[in-house]
Every structure is written in structure tokens, then in C-alpha cells.
Design brief:
With about 180 residues, this protein is α+β, with helices and mostly antiparallel strands. It is built from five helices and seven strands, in the order H-E-H-H-E-E-E-H-E-H-E-E.
């Protein structure tokens, strides 16, 4: 009986508010996620991500930014990812107009198991925003497929120094 209970807990996904002390965990997840995606498209030994993703400086910056909220994604007691979002244009205590997913990183060992979709569903249910936005590298075809599968549509592109990102949005219907 206790083994059954442990197995049930081990498969339950939950979000836990991130803290400034989670820098090491988030840096590790960023490094593994971004590098795995880069290797997938550019080959072994390749590494790429936003500035500071692999040295802790980006994680510190994100966790210290009061305009962003970071959640650790837990499967049972194991941290398998994190998500950072920005909410803007709060129109009431229970309603916001816009949410931007700044980062969604799931550990590569847990990709393609529904955890990214479950994570975003929990956020959408909790925040009740009309518009959801995300930016992802142009080369990351797996990310494009993921966001399109859960209802996002590409609406633009953004160029950086030698790199391009695709911009996606999801517009939720207002209840009538």
C-alpha cells in the first residue's frame, strides 16, 4: 500500500514558487535544456542560449526581477523544470490581460511526456489571461510544434545579432 502511495505522489506534477536561492537548480535546468536543444539542431558539442544561461547570471537576474514570477516544476519531490512568466495589465483581482512566458525549461529526460503542456495548463487556469505570448529560437522546430500543438500561433519574428526567434501567441476566448 505504501508503494502505491509513493508511486502516485511520484507522478503528480505541481508548481512551487521559485526563490532567489534556486539559482543553481535553475541554471542547471537552463544549461541542460538550451544545450540539448542546440545539439539537436546543430550537432554534438554545440552550446547556445541567452547570455548568462550557463553561468548563473541569467538565473539570478530572473529571480531578482519583481516583474517576473518563477515556478519550479516538480514531479513528486523531483524538480524537473521551471517556468518564468510576466503578467501585465491586471484588470481586476482575478483577471489579467496578458501573460508572457519568459522561460519554460523542462529537463531533457522529461521531454515528450506531457509535463510542459501540464505546466502551461496549470498556469493558464491560475492566471486567466486573455493573451499568452512566448518567444522561441527559429531553429527549434520541436518548440514550434509544442506551442502550436497547445494552441499557440506564430505571429512574428525577431532578429538578434545573427540569431532569429519566432513569436507565438495564444488568444483565449472570453466567456460569454
Amino acid at each position: 500500500m505504501s508503494n502505491q502511495h509513493v508511486n502516485e505522489d511520484a507522478t503528480k506534477l505541481c508548481l512551487k514558487l521559485g526563490k532567489r536561492t534556486d539559482v543553481i537548480i535553475i541554471t542547471d535546468l537552463m544549461t541542460k535544456s538550451f544545450n540539448e536543444d542546440t545539439v539537436r539542431y546543430f550537432g554534438e558539442g554545440q552550446e547556445d542560449g541567452p547570455p548568462g544561461y550557463n553561468d548563473g547570471s541569467l538565473a539570478k537576474k530572473v529571480l531578482a526581477d519583481p516583474s517576473k514570477t518563477t515556478f519550479l516544476v516538480l514531479l513528486g519531490q523531483q524538480t524537473i523544470g521551471f517556468v518564468t512568466l510576466s503578467i501585465s495589465n491586471q484588470t481586476s483581482r482575478t483577471h489579467n490581460d496578458k501573460a508572457t512566458i519568459d522561460y519554460l525549461c523542462i529537463h531533457p529526460a522529461f521531454i515528450n511526456r506531457g509535463f510542459g503542456s501540464q505546466t502551461l495548463k496549470k498556469l493558464e487556469d491560475n492566471y486567466q489571461c486573455d493573451h499568452w505570448f512566448v518567444e522561441t529560437p527559429a531553429y527549434s522546430l520541436r518548440n514550434h510544434h509544442f506551442y502550436e500543438k497547445i494552441g499557440y500561433q506564430k505571429y512574428g519574428e525577431k532578429d538578434y545579432d545573427g540569431a532569429r526567434s519566432f513569436l507565438y501567441q495564444k488568444i483565449k476566448s472570453k466567456a460569454k
